[in-house]
Amino acid sequence: MSKPNLARRVADAAEIALANRKYVTFIDVVTGLRWLHSRHVDTWRQGRAATLAELAAVDDERLVQAAGLLRDWAEAKGLRPVETPYVSGSRDRRELRFTAAHPQEAFRTHWLSPALSEARARQLTERQSKAPDLMVVAPLAPWTCASCADTGPYLIMEDDRPHCLTCADMDHLVFLPSGDAALSRRAKQESGLAAVVVRFNRRRKVYQRQGLLVEERALEAAEERCLADEEARLRRRERDRDRRADQDVEFQERMAAEIARLFPRCPAERAREIAVHAGLRGSGRVGRTAAGRALDANAITLAVVASIRHLDTDYDRLLMAGVPRMEARDRIRETIDGKLAEFRGQA
């Protein structure tokens, strides 16, 4: 890949992160480039890899080049650099390394938007500087503790090797499953020692949070606090549901307007239907991806293509007849291209 082409792809990935969060990190860029999957980042943050580079699909020099291009883009945009420490979620809290042989400053720098207020920027910087939660893994396969050769339901990494909770001096903690955000937050606040429990989801290929390990007395104290304000929490949840619904409507309206801009001959009602379908909260569709929320032109086009595929072609009938998915897509490609040209006013 040529340097100008890579610079453009780095800029595209950074623009999406900046639009979503008002700041950009090197991790945002390399995951946006598909050089790393989020599961690789999780593995690295857990302290299960010596460097991030050993998990990447490209070599160290390519990562260094991407970091330099990110810096050039950020400086041209007037973003503010903040160097942020990266430490592992293992008990030793060691400093995480991106590559083995290169200076780490370029990788650790976070680029903040000048639109952020000083208070928000300070809050963000403080949060980024905090050590991550201790990470405990609920393994899927049999394993053996590196210290005692025993096993157990959970392991924690130390010195790149798995240890049981007894050897890690954490066997006095009790498990609190996910599901009650207020209880989890308060139990963690009350507990002098706590750890997040994750399990690898093979289908989605990501580590998913299962709950917390906390001190038993902390869990009891948190349960008492939650019982005292249950009614207020119910009212707050109802308000939050209404607020999220309003936000979804606003986002879908903006997406429909962007569809109309990119495809001026697309009927207005069709544009609204595409936006509502693609932007449905929790659907996992293209409108809920980072690119979709940023109203990226490619993501908008993918949403329109999906609508055309199901409403204007024989795609669904071909699938029901047993035609392989990729072959079915090849058969309808000409129809889709023609409909896109029509919607763009090119037909």
Write a brief structural summary.
The protein is 52% helix and 11% strand. With 347 residues, the protein is an alpha+beta fold. The strands form three sheets. It has a four-stranded mixed β-sheet.
What class would the helix/strand composition place it in? alpha+beta
Cross-sheet strand order for the largest sheet: 4-8-9-7
Intertermini distance: 34 Å
Strand content: 5-15%
Outline: globular
SSE series: HEHHHEHEHEEEEHEEHHHHHHH
- Largest β sheet strand count, sense and barrel closure: 4 strands, mixed
Radius of gyration: 24 Å
Helical residues, percent:
40-55%
Mean pLDDT equals: 87
Which regions contain 5 or more consecutive residues with pLDDT less than 50?
Answer: none
Oligomer: single chain
Number of DSSP-assigned strands: 9
Helical segment count: 14
Structural commentary:
By secondary structure, the chain is α+β, with helices and mostly antiparallel strands. It has 14 helices and 9 strands. The strands form 3 sheets. Strands 4-8-9-7 form a 4-stranded mixed beta sheet.
